[in-house]
Amino acid sequence: MANPISLPLYEEISRKNNLQRAFDILIFFLLLSLLIYRFLSLNNHGLTWLLAFLCESFFTFTWFLVISTKYNPVAYKTYPDLVLERVPELPSVDMFVTTADAVLEPPIITVNTVLSLLAVDYPTHKLACYVSDDGCSPLTYYSLVEASKFAKLWVPFCKKYNIHVRAPFRYFSNNPLTFGGSSMEFQQEWNRMKDEYELLRRKIEDAVQNSLPCDLTGDFAEFLNAERKNHPTIIKVIWENKAGLPDGFPHLVYISREKQPKHPHHYKAGAMNVLYMVHGIAGIQGPFYGGTGCFHRRKVIYSLSPDNVDSVNEKFAEDILSKFGSSKELIKSAAHALKGKIDPPANLWNSIQAAYQVAGSAYEYGTSWGTK
């Protein structure tokens, strides 16, 4: 039997199309022939042909660049099952979702993004999802709270039937036979899940129509008198996987950083800075996922070159950490990351106060956050 370490995690499969290649080569030579003809006839036709020659030369050049990128297409066949045979345990991963305007970015879109991440095929006790709402919208928070209730049904359903398309709006836009199965049990559960999603969608749309999801009391009291560009920090742990169950669903945390008119907020860059700091304090402290195929190790965020990940000494760590502000919890978390340690808090609620500190509008002043 082959050694699992020697087996590839993916296979590159060439998808050559000889007919298309021949067609592209023919077009290329025709274009070259046209350019040669134009060039040799410039003296007889003057400025008009010179302009045509320049335009056609530019077109030929850009066409060649485009075709060269498609000349040798490949497909990749992955073998994710081999990952666990190579490493004893999968790393923890923090997932970031950003939104800034509940009108331009309707909450139902944000909700579908979050639900697809919560249902990702990965051990749920090693995942955490952070939603940055830079518009401080109670609509967004309300939608996420309602989505967390639906997620308790949606995540087990996806994993039970190995659903590949895990954004509900996309999944339920197709026939159940397309992305599932034909058994009676599956059909019944599919219909039930669709009804639950439609109920969620209607709740969110009704809240959007009413401008406010509910009275701003209780859990929503912090949104009272909050303006989009002038409001205190709001951090809510919507769901915490306290038992660390691999078959539950991940932590879900809502973050709206403090904004004050007298402090520049640096738009999305500022929001991402706060996400980096909060997930280092009140999170599972893994590498973070910020988009399609976009993973970053925490050591890199703390200014450590990937080439030096194994050469961290005390002095180097102190020099870096001295630039990260006054939060003792952030410095402690960063120190552990630089030394290759992972020390997530046992309880997210216990870390919220420290997270509020780093999410303040003035915290970055005098630090190196956002300057490099």
Report on the architecture of this protein:
This protein has 372 residues and is of the alpha/beta class. The protein has 2 domains: 55 residues; 267 residues, no CATH class. The strands form 2 sheets. Strands 5-6-4-3-7-8 form a 6-stranded mixed beta sheet, sandwiched between helices. A two-stranded antiparallel sheet has the order 1-2. α1 runs antiparallel to α3 and α5 runs parallel beside α6. It is globular. The chain starts with 9 loop residues before the first strand and ends in a 14-residue tail after the last helix. The model has no long low-confidence stretch (mean pLDDT 80). It is found in: Endomembrane system. One of its GO terms (cellular component) is endomembrane system. Keywords: Cell wall biogenesis/degradation, Glycosyltransferase, Membrane, Transferase, Transmembrane, Transmembrane helix. One of its GO terms (molecular function) is cellulose synthase (UDP-forming) activity.
